[in-house]
Amino acid sequence: MDLAFLQPLYAGDASVVSVHLDTSRGAHDADKQIELRRRAARRSLSEQGAPEADLAVLDDIVGGAPELPGPKGEALFVSAGRLLGAFTLVEPPAADSAQVLPVPDPLGVAIDRDHQLPHVVVAVDREGADVEAYPATGHEPTLRRTFNGSTLHITRVRAGAEAQASYHRRTVNVWTENTGQAVDDVRAAAAAVEAAVVLIAGDPKAVGLLREHLAARPLDAEVVYVEGGRTDASAREGLRASVDAAMHEAMTVRHRAVLERLEAELAGGRALQGIPAVKEALAEGRVETLLLAADRGGDPTLYASRRDPRVLGTDSAALGEDPTAFSAPAAPLLLRSAVLGGASFTEILPPTRCTDGVAALLRY
Predict the structure, then answer these.
(1) Which Pfam families does this UniProt record tie to the protein (predicted)?
(2) Looking at domain 119-256, which CATH architecture does it have?
(3) Quick one: average pLDDT of 41-57?
(4) N or C terminus of the chain: which is more exposed, having fewer CB within 10 Å?
(5) Rounded to 5 degrees, what are φ and ψ at 225?
(6) Which residue, 223, 218, 180, is CA-closest to 201?
């Protein structure tokens, strides 16, 4: 995953407030729960010495996106009285956090973004289709098309043999025409977000016809058939649940593929693991992809420089007489070096076997 979207978080040299909160609104008292989390975060930040100007900025923006239902979270970054970045998280953080550090700590944002894939959701029936395209960062579709084709002679009827055959032919023709239009919408939606996955559900007959159209001209995306449809609220809820499960599986498969590549590259000397080796490769600009496990509870302290964000040391002596040297936990400093060094990112899914929960694929 490209980390360039995090670059604005490193715009200044002042300390940075990093907040990750669960802002889900499924419970009846969600607003009260969010307010309690906000107060707890503010209290913790104040105890850590956060400037009042930074706390005031947070007071104005904490609360997430109330228009988005279901589980979600938010990550906020403030420095020198200015909002550096605000991100809505698809998945709530495992635990709320509020930190004041010399650098931002956007690992939760990187992991949340790393879990998402651009995708298209298709609900098709005999009359047409609902097609929605989601970018990797999208909670709402950036493109939505609803097609309801001709419904004339759409239902097969009981009649005389000759009349019945005619109705059936016209029914099949209309279904075929409708799914032909629907597949055009699917192709446009997939191209709009460069979809990695297209998820299709609905009436079995319509899905079968859509499958035939796609077989004739395959998409540049994985096609997954799921449960659900567009007929009523229950069908749409079933579709959402099926889509969530399928997307989680697609994400897991892709992460496993990266870890399999990592094992092969480690054996061939084109990858590294452990903080000491990875920090040196970052300093030398040799890291193609930084891999980190989400659990950073045992992270050691590293030393870094304002002059060169790629340089990291295990002790202050490693940076010599650099007056801009400072210390922070390993993960935010490794991620800072990766962001500003042009590296990409992948989470190491548990259980991890990498030393320190840190690894890197090298450029070559």
Answers:
(1) baeRF_family2 (PF18844)
(2) 2-Layer Sandwich (3.30)
(3) 97
(4) C
(5) -100, 125
(6) 223
